[in-house]
Design a protein that fits this description.
Layout: H1 2-26, H2 40-60, H3 69-81, H4 84-114, H5 127-144, H6 187-206, H7 210-217, H8 237-258, H9 270-291, H10 296-318, H11 325-347
Helix pairs in contact: 1-9, 1-10, 2-8, 2-9, 3-6, 3-7, 3-8, 4-5, 4-6, 4-10, 5-11, 10-11
């Protein structure tokens, strides 16, 4: 009976992870053909969409107790999200998400497996499989560094209107795309900066859930302020969403001040940004639901490797970012390695 229940939970967890993978891997696809400028307005709209979905979810869950510490994970995520548009412009959707997915995977796996940042270490039944899986995922990240992407920094459009002043980029007074600092960099410099930022962003994304794990780990400690805290991961999504929206708002205000109250705001970004936030928030709910059936040391490799693969397929097959036989072979080999690594890690608990 116990084995049957465990198998059912495993199936539910994998199903929730699958939805998370599809949503995470596709949430940035619809901005590929939309001019986002320096990305600051996009990230604010995106985070507003995430907060709106988390608010609805919080009401549906009857407003569970709010823990401000859970907001810290949202702040960390929003900090990394600021660089997403820069990464996409520098190295593309497929390569960017593959690299930050690998870095996120390793950070999330290591913090859960070894108990970093004050959380309890999670044991697995087959440690060798777990370590081999993590090692393969690290190898895949190294392989992706050698893949070269052919990326268009800006979508082909004759006129990109601005929301605040109604001017267009094709007019004499419109914003020049070269004003974005990344556009002034050469191909090699752009690639180096994009890869470096992708690693940093991945490490931040991989640390997003640490505050929630910390709260849950200390819920049974009588002398802890988190004593009696909920073990249901979905109860913390709203707090994380608040942290995301608060941090993104602060960053956008600072950006507006730095731009002398003349931010680059493109109207085409609004609906895609909100849709991206909606998809990301729903994916997070699916992921958190999976954590109730599988531990995070299992779900992290599955989700991060999975959404990286989905994004790679979008970027290479639809947007043609990866060209040339050598690059395609490297991309295929790297994705095979990361899939095998995630499968080994998933089954290491059973």
């Amino acid at each position: 009976m116990c084995n049957s229940t465990a198998n059912i939970h495993f199936v539910y967890g994998i199903a929730a992870n699958l939805f998370a993978v599809l949503l995470y891997g596709s949430n940035l696809v619809h901005i590929k053909k939309v001019e986002t400028g320096d990305g600051m307005f996009f990230q604010w709209v995106n985070c507003a969409g995430i907060w709106a979905v988390s608010l609805v979810g919080n009401l549906l869950l009857n407003s569970p107790k709010f823990y401000p510490l859970a907001m810290l994970g949202g702040v960390i995520w929003a900090t990394g999200n600021v660089a997403v548009v820069t990464i996409l412009k520098a190295i593309g959707l497929s390569l960017g998400i593959l690299i930050w997915g690998s870095a996120s995977l390793l950070m999330g796996w290591a913090s859960s497996r070894f108990g970093w940042f004050g959380i309890s270490a999670q044991d697995v039944s087959r440690p060798l499989l777990n370590y081999c899986g993590a090692g393969l995922c690290m190898l895949s990240g190294m392989i992706f560094f050698y893949v070269k992407a052919d990326v268009e920094p800006h979508p082909s459009s004759d006129s990109i209107p601005l929301l605040l002043n109604g001017r267009t980029s094709s007019g004499n007074y419109g914003p020049n795309f070269s004003e974005f600092w990344m556009d002034a960099q050469g191909p090699k410099t752009r690639r180096f900066i994009g890869c470096l930022l992708a690693v940093v962003v991945g490490l931040m994304y991989g640390s997003t859930f640490v505050p929630i794990l910390y709260i849950k780990n200390h819920s049974s400690c009588h002398d802890s302020i988190f004593y009696g805290a909920s073990m249901y991961d979905l109860d913390y999504v709203y707090a994380q969403g608040c942290g995301i929206f608060l941090a993104s708002t602060v960053y956008f205000v600072v950006y507006c001040a730095a731009m002398n109250n003349k931010p680059k705001v493109y109207p085409q970004v609004i609906l895609p940004g909100l849709l991206s936030g909606l998809m990301w928030a729903l994916a997070t709910y699916c992921w958190f639901l999976a954590n109730n059936y599988l531990s995070s040391v299992i779900t992290f490799p599955i989700v991060t490797a999975g959404y990286s693969l989905v994004a790679a397929l979008w970027g290479s097959l639809i947007f043609r970012e990866i060209k040339g036989l050598f690059n395609c072979v490297l991309l295929f080999f790297g994705t095979c390695v990361v899939v095998v690594g995630s499968v080994l890690t998933a089954f290491s608990k059973y």
